Amino acid sequence: MKKTQRRYDLDWWRVISIFLVFLHHIGMPFNGDDFHIMNGTSSKLLDDSMVFFEQFRLPLLFIISGVGTVFAFSKRSWLQFIKERALRLLIPLIFGVFIIVPPQTYIEQINTYASYSTFYKGILDHIEVNHLWFIENLFYLSVASIPLILFIRSKYAIRFKNIITVFTSKPLGMFLLVLPLMIIKIVSKKYYPDDSSDITNLSTTLFYGYFFIVGIILAGTPAVWESLKKYRKTNLLLTVMATLVFYAYYFMPNDIASSYWEVSTRWRIWYGVSALVSWTVICTLLGYGQLWLSKPSTLLTKCNEAIYPFYILHQTVLIVIGYYVIQQSWSIPVKLLILALSSFLMIVCIYRYIVYPFKIMRFLFGMKKK
């Protein structure tokens, strides 16, 4: 725990998961859900595809963040760790809330104001976190996890880690850890049915927090990584089976489902099946990633440095560009392609020429010094 080796596979998964978030938000104006901007027509096929990726893109990011939090802690005292988390998370959050996010709110209400400057004069009435909720939640989880990290690092955790190691050394050991996750999601949703990402919404916080805590435990028990790699084929088979169950239930006609279960029961089944997909996919990815993604590269180094500013910028850029794209008469595939390419290029240009070269901008975007 005191000496950490760079995990290139986790670096890649961080980059990939945030890029998946970007692609997900690209599709949001066209899938029929409620988003900041909405196209006049929607695609059922797109919606049916996105609902699957929704189950693991953010949980993957939280489990990686849990591992990364331990690595960050291993180099610092707990006070230094809190300072580092504040600089890395709170500064970009505050900057984002006042500078990055407001254009999103303005686009939502663009017909209400004569100009952006007119809107911004009342910015204190429009404070929103939007997509930066992940940064906010990550800060709270990081600080709250300090006692757990100290425990994992101590001699008192040896027995606990031995139990985890023995349990996960069995072919289905890691898979069975999905059971607490399913219980957490089903029970918490009963009392907190909202999908809000606010830290006070315990159904969301406990669900993502489970992955974050698992990441912390993974960082302290190297043998679990070996189990993930060893049983990757088993986990892949479980993922295929979970996916089949997921879509079988997803496409089940309402009249058939309603003849067997009440609405509340149907939702509980959905929460359980969703958690099953989340867990099996992530176990599979973490296993195969150790084989496929454990090599350093120049591309990874550049992507790993850029991905945090990319995340902070992405939703604002695509909403501003998307507002004009959705007004065109093009087909949905054409709009998706144009929005994805133009947004990606714009984000890269902002990063390369406005964020990357300047110390103050690097500081505001949570980047390390050059």
Radius of gyration: 21 Å
Low-confidence regions: none
Please provide the ordered H/E string of secondary-structure elements: HHHHHHHHHHHHHHHHHHH
The figure for the number of domains is: 1
Q: What is the total tally of β strands?
A: 0
* Number of helices, where a helix is a run of at least 4 consecutive DSSP H or I residues: 19
Strand proportion? under 5%
Query: How far apart, in Å, are the first and last alpha carbons?
Result: 26 Å
Please give the share of residues in helix. over 70%
What general outline do the C-alpha atoms trace? Answer: globular
**Secondary structural class:** mainly alpha
Overall average pLDDT: 95
Largest sheet: none
Q: Any chance you could write out the topology, listing elements then pairs?
A:
Layout: H1 8-27, H2 44-53, H3 57-73, H4 78-100, H5 102-108, H6 116-120, H7 133-144, H8 146-153, H9 158-168, H10 173-176, H11 178-191, H12 202-220, H13 222-230, H14 232-250, H15 254-258, H16 263-292, H17 298-325, H18 332-355, H19 359-364
Helix pairs in contact: 1-3, 1-16, 1-17, 3-12, 4-7, 5-17, 8-12, 11-12, 11-16, 13-16, 14-16, 17-18
